[in-house]
UniProtKB/TrEMBL annotation:
Keywords: ATP-binding, Cytoplasm, Disulfide bond, Nucleotide-binding, RNA-binding, Transferase, tRNA processing, tRNA-binding. This is tRNA-specific 2-thiouridylase MnmA. Catalyzes the 2-thiolation of uridine at the wobble position (U34) of tRNA, leading to the formation of s(2)U34. Residues 206-272 form the tRNA-specific 2-thiouridylase MnmA-like central domain. Belongs to the MnmA/TRMU family. It comes from Actinokineospora bangkokensis. Residues 147-149 are annotated as: Interaction with tRNA. Its EC number is 2.8.1.13. Residues 280-358 form the tRNA-specific 2-thiouridylase MnmA-like C-terminal domain.
Amino acid sequence: MRVLAAMSGGVDSAVAAARAVEAGHDVTGVHLALSAKPGTLRTGSRGCCTVEDAHDARRVADLLGIPFYVWDFAERFTEDVVDDFVAEYAAGRTPNPCLKCNERIKFEALLDKAVALGFDAVCTGHYARLAVVDGRPELRRAADLGKDQSYVLASLTPDQLAHALFPLGGSVKSDVRAEAQARGLAVAEKPDSYDICFIPDGDTRGFLRGKLGDRPGQLVDDATGAVLGVHAGVHGFTVGQRHGLGIDAPAPDGKPRYVLSLEPVTATVRVGPAERLAVREIVAHRPVWPSGQALAGEVECVAQVRAHGGTSAARASFAGGALVVRPSARLTGVAPGQAVVLYRPDPGGDVVLGSGMISATS
């Protein structure tokens, strides 16, 4: 099988490419240049896709004896990931750029180009498992639950999954690093990237202010309607946020306040106590069914609303284009713009049933 290995320059994609070669595939490595200014996107373990990363990926490809290319996807990445990120925050939603990058860059733009060039599959270093059951792809959680990335892959379609390889799905991270060391890969101890790759200093609020400027509004007590302060823009907040609210006076009961909702039209940020964060119902749109099978009727499932954590047993149904999820446990900090991913409750809740973008909660 002709395989295009997406090589970020990190240890995971390096070992994934090595395993694809070892499995007997005809492998070509490719590094995606996602920034018009690649030298600015890595500070230690923050950021990715720098010139340094491209060189690291090339050295791994040379060691593996496979062809290697750098493809410039910077313009597409800016439009589909960075600009979308800014627009979502401006609209009072909280996006997940990793999910969007997987959906629009690695398994749309990259995969489309790979297939057009005659490749059978794209191989990545994601921690997730794939199986084929009754002729349908089945996306599952990784063996290493601490590294599991099925949540950010749950927006992939059956056709995209049919052209995907995730060689690390059955491994734990410590074993992957040990394997990289044994193979003589120089990236064996390279730190993992974290946070948002295009905001290497980690200052999301500052990044958004630079893009959107100030859009002043009021901080309002959700229960009483009292104005508690002013802010520079709803894009500086997310549902569930506790710190950095800019409220001088403590609550009458002495308990901390949290962001409960964002209203971009009126530039209002509503705040209140933690107990008002709990949601009874989640409504999501743009559903994706990785196996190709939509929900039929109301089903029991496990719902996840954040990339790590935020899970609950739930009941879900799909009708009229809307996915409605009713968690049985107390879920907090559920923000519009994030994804809700549904897993089969047995065995172990590791098979993805579907996903949708959260549009409302109650």
